[in-house]
Amino acid sequence: MDLFLDKDQTEFQTHIARWVEKRLAPQAAALDRSGAFSRELFKELGELGYYGVMYPEAYGGSGLKQPYVYYTILCEELARASMGFAATVCMHASAATHTIYAWGNEALRQRYLVPAIRGDMVGAFAITEANAGSDAGSIRTRAAKADGGWRLNGTKIFTSNGTIADFVTVAATTDPAKKVRGIGLFLVDTKTEGFRVGRKLEKFTTHCSDTAELVLDDVFVADECRLGDAEGGFLNAYKALTIDRIFTAALAIGNGRAAYDAAFKYATEREQFGQPIGKFQAVQFKLVDMLAQLDQARIYTYYAASLADQGRPITIEAALSKIIAADGCNEVCQKALNIFGGYGLMDEFPVQRYLRDSYFPMIGGGTSDIMRLIVARQLGL
Q1: Residues 327, 249 contacting (CB under 8 angstroms)
Q2: Which residues face 129 on adjacent strands?
Q3: Is residue 189 predicted with pLDDT exceeding 80?
Q4: Are 86 and 79 a contacting pair, CB within 8 Å?
Q5: Cα–Cα distances in Å, from 287 out to 147, 277, 334?
Q6: From CA 98, how far away is CA 91, in angstroms rounded?
Q7: CA separation for the pair 80, 25 (Å, rounded)
């Protein structure tokens, strides 16, 4: 549908859609089966300038006036072919690099941000722990002051891009008594002594999106690699994580679009009782409901992205966009598989992948129920 994108945004959407169709879509099924990270595609997308959508030209970015709408377009189009690959890009070119741009010094920007925008480096953001997910204040990874820097000790889990990252922004507590206000952000080069990947985590969803357990064993981080204020560095990063909810919604929409398109095409080709199954009211109603859910999700998600570009508060809108898109597009994918019937369960058809991948946005970046809790609190309930 036409979302009233302007001419430049429409052209941007057309260009990335062409790349997706030509380069990503033909490899999507194979990447899902192997669970492999395609460094070739990752690098190619960087060379085309897409990782710089939200950054100024001085660092190799695009210097766009509405970066969040553009990045929402990028996430949606990538997820239309591969949610796993799109999730890798979404983390890399948003939270993982935004922390460096927003709170790193110039030397860090040149060393990590610039090559990351080119696609020469991969970034990650590590916050979740076995006993600290939505409750960030319970983080146990400790940052202890040392001569010239900090010593980090702890374990992170569910870290996207964890095994492939060249650098990781790590959330660690400097004072557990202060809860979230005692959490700082520390940029860790993955070649640093004491840093290691505990294990790669296997998932039933987004197979080619790398997820890892990370171990920090007395990792030294120089003072200049602490990102943000002496206190409350995490509270600054929380703003970036809030905007990321909009991008996660875009991932859900792209995947839902793919499921809808596949189901619509199948309904016009598959014949039963002498006519295409799309002629049966039961199938028609499913397709109409799917379209309604998709359009509702897209309209609200782009509305939230536009608010972000205006610098307006988006805590409620970002959470709602994630709820509407993630939950709604999961239902779209369930209906799509139902339309395929028995063939929907077969690996030769992508609809089973779309359904598996639709669970990722419902969990990643905060579950749908946590989003509801955030909105309820904002409403004063």
Answers
A1: no
A2: 132
A3: yes
A4: yes
A5: 63, 11, 11
A6: 10
A7: 8
d(Cα 117, Cα 32) in Å, to the nearest integer? 25
The pTM of this model reads 0.95
Distance CA(161)–CA(372), nearest Å, equals: 27
Say how many C-beta atoms besides its own lie within 10 A of residue 333's C-beta: 29
Q: Which element (helix H / strand E) includes 160?
A: strand 149-160
Q: DSSP letter string over 250-316?
A: HHHHHHHHHHHHHHHHHHHH-EETTEEGGGSHHHHHHHHHHHHHHHHHHHHHHHHHHHHHTT---HH
Find residue 155's DSSP bridge partners: 215
Q: Residue 185 forms beta bridges with which residues?
A: 171, 227
Angle made by CA atoms 132, 217, 137, in degrees to the nearest 5: 20
CA dist list (Å): 208 to 84, 148, 338: 5, 39, 25
Structure tokens at 139: 């983080």
What pLDDT, on the 0 to 100 scale, is given for residue 231? 59
Q: Which DSSP state fits 132?
A: B
Distance, in Å, from the CA atom of 49 to the CA atom of 74, rounded to the nearest integer, reads: 11
- The whole-angstrom separation of Cα 30 and Cα 24 is 10
Q: For 1-56, how does the pLDDT look when each residue is reduced to its tens digit (9 = 90+)?
A: 556 789 999 999 999 999 999 999 999 999 999 999 999 999 999 999 999 999 99
Domains and CATH numbers, the chain: 7-118 (1.10.540.10), 123-231 (2.40.110.10), 234-378 (1.20.140.10)
**CB neighbours of 31 closer than 8 A, spacing ≥ 6?**
38, 82, 84, 85, 207, 208
Q: What is the pLDDT of residues 214-245, one digit of tens each?
A: 999 999 999 999 998 765 567 777 777 899 99
Tokens representing 82?
């591969």
Q: Which amino acid, 368?
A: S
Q: What is the pLDDT of residues 108-165, one digit of tens each?
A: 999 999 999 999 999 999 999 988 777 777 889 999 999 999 999 999 999 999 999 9
User: Which residues make Cβ contacts (< 8 Å) with residue 147, sequence separation at least 6?
Assistant: none
> Among 335, 313, 324, which residue's Cα sits nearest to residue 372?
324
**Residues 250, 74: Cα–Cα separation, whole Å:** 9
